[in-house]
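Lecture 7 notes: from sequence to structure.

We start with a single chain of 415 residues. Read the sequence below before looking at the structure.
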Amino acid sequence: MPKQDTHIIGLDLGTTRTTAVIADTGDDGRPEIMGLGVAESQGLRKGVVVNPDAAAEPIRRAIEEAERMSGLIAESVYVSMSGTLLKGLNNRGIIAVNNSDRKINRGDIKRVIDTACVISLPGGHEIIDVQPQEYIVDGQDGINDPLGMLGTRLEVSVHIITGPITVRQNIITAVNRAGLLVSDVILEPIAAAESTLTADEREYGSAVINIGGETTSLAIYQRSAVMHTAIFPLGGSHFTNDIAFGLRTPIPEAERIKRSYGCVLASMALAESGDSIEVPSVSRRPPRTLSREILCEILQPRAEEILGHIDDEIKRAGFERQLSSGIILTGGGAMIAGLPELAEQIFDSPTRVGYPLNVSGTTENVNNPIYASAIGLVLIAHRGGAHHFNNVAGQNGKRLGSAAARMKEWLGKMF
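Now the structure, written as tokens:
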């Protein structure tokens, strides 16, 4: 019988795949993955929930699968958020420390962050997340946590994520209708970076590129802080659509061909020129056979377009010469052959594929870039959560299913 315990659930709402990860704390203090559930997404477009009712069903299926594997019951989840409507910006705040002993306390830290969050927003928009970059005490910069320090003036630099109020609320509504509560909503590129970056990569400068189904997100880290974020309306499904259009084959077959034979670097395709690919046709026409080089000619321009947009964004943000630790590719789209090598050429920087780090348990099941965001959510929650400006109070009090109701259903399916 499933047991209720203190555990963490990460829920990655992707456009093509909904992933749930249940973790507990292992003997070594690291999150231990206990269960994994995956379902085909519905009700999302370009990373945004557009139909909460449709999105709720795959959430429910993914959670139930993870519960069956782990023997644990999910009640609240940490959820990823994406979409091109979300924007990131940097800002600063400054306050005077008025305490009689000049010792900086948590109230001072909250007050200076609140000051940095005084920005002008379009109607219907909100601040979704705030990530402190560094604190400055009496002119001394490079401080990660000023709590307990002595000073008369406290400054902070922050990275602020803004977006329409409805984006976050529709996520919460979909999760509530799946019978769950939302503990926090976290930006997808930040979650992906949490699980794939090493301490040195955070400190010395790196860029995490998370290639999802219909979006690609960017998070730039330096001095162990988020310095820049961006989300683009291009992703792995564009490769699939290019194959379907270029080869006149159905979408499911195009997806199969992409995963089995896809390559985005001509030199790599030529090295394996002996491979032949059978391509089913539409309208009951006989299948055709083509070489991997032809497939590469279709995929490489799209890969160059996606990476080119990111390269332009990195240069626009002024970080092209500050990524000493290079580029980390993650997400389902990062698995296509030749992409790291092509990225090295475009960014002129060392590139690797980002696999989840710092977790134990059923790692053979989750040791895949596809699960980087879901595991990143678990890691953020495990270390105490991010510095979020908004909480998720005001969720629907009447969930359409409770943990007890779903446990009863779970047992009914077993017996």
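The first helix runs from residue 52 to 70. Keep this in mind for problem set 3.
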